[in-house]
Specification:
Rossmann fold; UDP-galactose 4-epimerase, domain 1; 2 domains; seven-stranded parallel sheet; two-stranded parallel sheet; binds nicotinamide-adenine-dinucleotide
């Protein structure tokens, strides 16, 4: 039986990835600094470890007789745009320490295959009518925020370890990802979850606050499609960074409309100042598509699977707060 290690298994995408690896027949160790907030883990073993510490990274990759066949590094100090702007020191320090030590300890332990979760935040700001950026267009580098700079540096570090130690490294640059069992409140949530929460709490005919003027263009990927891409990429021969995202570009206004459709509600919007982030992100997905990958969920299909879960959490929490 093949063995996989998932770092960040107590988080949103890591939690979904553990489930997929189990379905794919792996024995899985999950590692995180905290347990999953929203469900019990599917991992065969779950270790609570702070991966900023080198000794904990060494413990994580120690499979006890033979190395892990695959290591997936998704642990990061991260959140939506509000958090990315408010916590740039924490993001640069904590995520960098995790990646410095995880990459080195995985190479030292002889891990044959290492996955690193990068982000579309490595790209510069764009206008919505610009042609798609390919992976090579990350250079000359001008990420819009420090989170993107940390990702770019950690990509390069992983590739340097590949060159020196022969550890096969696979790097995906994720788009904004959404789905059930992800952070939906508290300041780290991303726009789809935040809007699902606001709509659920506003109720039919209500009005929600939206950061900016609603025109920023984004693409959003449903978590099952992203996990499909991660698994395909990890089993492939594709070296260098690979974008994984949907080509359905929507404005923030259209995202709100999609959530309102899923909720079956009429929702008004009030635009307020907030950390909106880049104007647009247009990046090409030809590399991941070359592996036969398809984005199976359009925004409405993904939101239809996400809204009920976020709404249930939000209404439950609101009810508990009242009682
Ligand atoms: P998440 O915050 O839900 O998961 C990250 C996990 O890392 C958390 O469970 C957290 O507890 C853990 N972690 C943080 N510090 C740690 C430490 N010191 N030691 C051990 N574990 C620690 O985020 P996610 O959305 O699941 O993102 C997973 C990865 O994908 C991250 O690297 C993120 O940067 C990247 N990514 C996510 C998105 C997205 O839209 N969600 C987009 C681009 C890239």
């Amino acid at each position: 039986m093949k063995k996989a290690l998932v770092c960040g298994a107590g988080g949103f995408i890591g939690g979904h990835l553990v489930r997929r690896l189990k379905a794919d027949g792996f024995w899985v160790r999950g590692v995180d600094i905290k347990a999953h907030e929203f469900r019990t883990t599917d991992a065969d073993e779950f270790l609570l470890l702070d991966l900023r510490e080198p000794a904990n990274c060494a413990r994580a990759v120690d499979a006890g007789g033979g190395a892990f066949d695959q290591v997936y590094q998704l642990a990061a100090d991260m959140g939506g745009m509000g958090f990315i702007h408010a916590a740039e020191c924490e993001i640069m320090r904590n995520s960098m320490l995790i990646n410095v030590h995880m990459t080195a300890e995985a190479a030292r332990a002889g891990v044959p295959r290492y996955f690193y979760s990068s982000s579309a935040c490595v790209y510069r700001d764009m206008m919505s009518d610009e042609p798609d950026l390919t992976e090579d267009d990350a250079y000359p580098a001008m990420p819009d925020n420090e989170y993107g700079w940390e990702k770019l540096y950690s990509e390069r570090m992983a590739m340097a370890y590949q060159r020196r130690y022969g550890m096969a490294v696979r790097i995906a640059r994720f788009q904004n990802c959404y789905g059930p069992y992800g952070t939906w409140q508290g300041g780290r949530e991303k726009a789809p979850a935040a809007i699902c929460r606001k709509v659920a709490l506003a109720g039919d005919g209500g009005t929600i606050e939206v950061w900016g003027d609603g025109t920023a263009m984004r693409t959003y990927i449903f978590v099952d499609d992203l996990v499909d891409g991660i698994r395909l990429l990890m089993e492939s021969h594709l070296e260098g960074a690979v974008n994984i995202g949907s080509e359905q570009r929507v404005s923030v206004n259209e995202l709100v409309a999609s959530v309102a459709r899923a909720a079956g509600m009429k929702i008004g919007m009030r635009y307020v100042d907030g950390p909106v982030g880049v104007h647009a992100r247009n990046h090409a997905n030809a590399r991941i598509r070359s592996l036969g990958w398809e984005c199976r969920h359009d925004l409405d299909a993904g939101i239809a699977k996400t809204y009920p879960w976020v709404a249930e959490q939000a209404l439950l929490a609101a009810g508990e707060a009242q009682s």
